[in-house]
Structures are given as C-alpha cells and as structure tokens.
Here is the input.
Amino acid sequence: MADYTPKTEYDGLSLPYSSEAEQAVLGAIIFEPECINRVTEILPNSDFFYIALHRLIYSTMLSMLSGGRSIDFVTLYEELKREKDFDPTEGKTYLVGLVENCPSTSNVEIYARLVRDKFDIRQLIYAGRQIIDKATAGEFESDILVDNAEQMIYDIRRGKNVAGLELIGNVILKTFDRLDALNKDDPAMKPVSSGIGDLDRVITGLNRTDLILLAARPGMGKTSFALNIAKSVAGPQKKTVAFFSLEMSKEQLASRLLSTESLVEGTKLRTGKLTDEEWKRIIAGGDILSKMNLYLDDTPGITVPAMKAKLRRLRDIDLVVIDYLQLMSTGRRGDGNRVQEISEITRNLKIMAKELNVPVICLSQLSRASEQRTDHRPQLSDLRDSGSIEQDADIVLFLYREGYYNKEGSPEASPTADQNAAECLVAKNRHGEARAVKLHWQGEFMRFTSVETNHG
Here is the structure.
C-alpha cells in the first residue's frame, strides 16, 4: 500500500490537522450517504483534507455524487480499486475502520468545520511563508508586497464565509423586510443618489455591488461629472466616498471641487487672480468641502488589489470612483496584450464591488469611432480596448455634449446650438430601461446640473 503517513512539517513549520475529524467525516458519509450533502458546502473539494488517503477517498465520493451514483461501502470500495494509489487489501480494512470508529453521523457538520478550520490555519502558514519568501527575494516594492499580503489574508477570510442554497420562502421574507425598510425611508437600505434626479429615476440610484461605467471622449467632462456625483454623495447625503484619480493630482481635484462648490471660475483658481468676494466664496466652499468624508488618492497605475487594501482600511465606504480605467495596472508583467489586461481589471472591479458591497463608478475613454459618424453620440461598440467592459458593467453611461463638436468656428457650428446642453446616455441598464437624460453643462464651474422636467 502507498505511504499515507502525513507530512507534519512545512519548511520547518508544524502543520496542524485533525486525523480524527477527517476520519469522522468520511466514516459518517459511508455509514449514512446523505451526510455528503450536509458537508459539501463546508468542504467543497478534497483539498481541505490533509491526509493523502482521505483526499483520495473524498474526491472519489464527490466524483460519484456528481455522476449520480449511490455511495455506500461496496460502491465506494469498487470505485477506489480503480485508483493506482489505493491498495485494495489494506484499503478495505481502512474503510471498515472508518465506519466502525465514526462517533456520530448527527455531528458530521461539526467534524467538517474542524477539518475546515485546520485547513484555514495551514493556508495561513503557507501564506506566511510566501510573504516571507517574496519579501526576502527583493524583487518587489514594499507597497506591492503589503498589498499582496493583505490580499492573501483576505482571500482566506473570504473563503470562510460560505453561502449556500437558500429556500425561496426565506429569500422572499428578506425581500419583504428590505421593501419595508425602503418604504420607511431607512437610509441604510436606500441606494445612493447620484444627485441628478432624472438619472436616479432611470438607474434607480447607485446600487451597492454595481459596477457603473462612465465613458466619454477626452474633454467631454467625465471627470467633472464624476466629481459632481462624489460631492453630492459626500456632501448633502453625508456618506463616505473614495475617489481614485490616476490622471490628475489631489490638488487639481481639490481645485475643481472648490470651483464647483464656490462658483468661482476654474481659470481664476489656476491663476490665483481672485477678487475679495471670490476669496470669501472660496473660503466658504473650502470649509464645506473640508467637513465631507471624501477621500482622494492619486496613486499612478494603481492595481485593484492595492485599491481594495486601501478601501478595507476605510470601512463603511458608500461609493468608489475611479478615474480612469485605461490608466490602471494589473500589477504584473504581461505579454503586452492590453485587451486581456483590461478584461482582467474590469472583472476584478466587479468582484470588488460585490466583496465590499459598494457601488463602483469607473471612468473610461472611448475610441475615435464616434468622431467618424455624422451623429457623434457614443455607442457601446465605441468602448475602448475590450468588449468585456460592456459585459462586466451593470450600467454603462455615456456623456455627450453637442457643443463639443459644435464649437464656434468649426465647420459643424450652428448658431442655434445650445453650447451648454448635455446628455447622459444610459446605454446599458440592468435595472431598467436605457435612455438619455438631459443635463446642463456649466463649463466655467466644471459642473453638470439637472434640467428641470415635469414628471407628472
């Protein structure tokens, strides 16, 4: 028979495991096959077992379960005999011992959790060794090492939160509770408002776990639009917002926010030539902004793991804004396939939105395709670098200003065109219809506002 004696050390470190708990789980399943349905949620694969023979037995059980075959002593033994690492003679005796020594089938979930707990501790040991190896190799910067270490630990913690199937009746009751809380205007249950009523009515606000893509051509005002939303959420709604800017510095963002809040032209903030009245408005605006829970980060080329690490330290985050997608990095050397990298980033951003239970607004550039069309309004096909952007996003918003293409002196200029008219085109909406929302653009103050409409 093969040597099934477990290795109890890893690189000089003692590895914890419970042979008794592993045997109790396997013995309970052989004695009462229904038990496997009670433990697969806790132990979804054989990797959780430390002893090699136990891994082999459990993986065979799972294979039989997925194949619709009944599991009992005879069928399991016949299946195991086909495995080259299983000795039929000694293995049969071992299986008999598993059944005879099983303490109780009613406690099988408790035994499974013991197996899982030991596995998690071993994973911590493995992660600790990897952290030490990477730190001593001298190949990575400290920021990347810290982010990777936090992600490893977080992945272990996330793996412990196993969610299983739930009866529809229980889900309906939770839905009723949520609707009741919404009806009572419980702020903890309501989606975050974008600050633009017409847009909220279309997308039902900024919903938690949503990845919202905001795309436009350069100079269309997408950073200003995102800042407007961030200021509205952190200001009147008194919520916590994190704004990651990969293009502009924190000081530039603060200047834009000051311009919008104090209604002082952005050009004057850049030159510093302000009147006494404008200085008063700037000071008042700065006082209002200083009281907001609005956090700015201008780390260039930030990765999703680094972003998650920073957000987990904040706790109770209500909105994340990223400006912008194409400047993000995967944090590793790739083969130069930018489309694949963007696909990986958008997929991880959606996972981040779900893990942190927060709406994520990610800005994106558009290709030049819209420039070639008579109607310059963006389309989903204009999304730059990857079709997975459209696939991963719950909502896709496009910003469009006719005045951008209708500038005075241009061949397309029209004397009747409203240079301040703007639209937010809802091109994809998992929560409802896709349509345009009219906006008003005030370029001197870098802000978008709602256009008053009658909803009666």
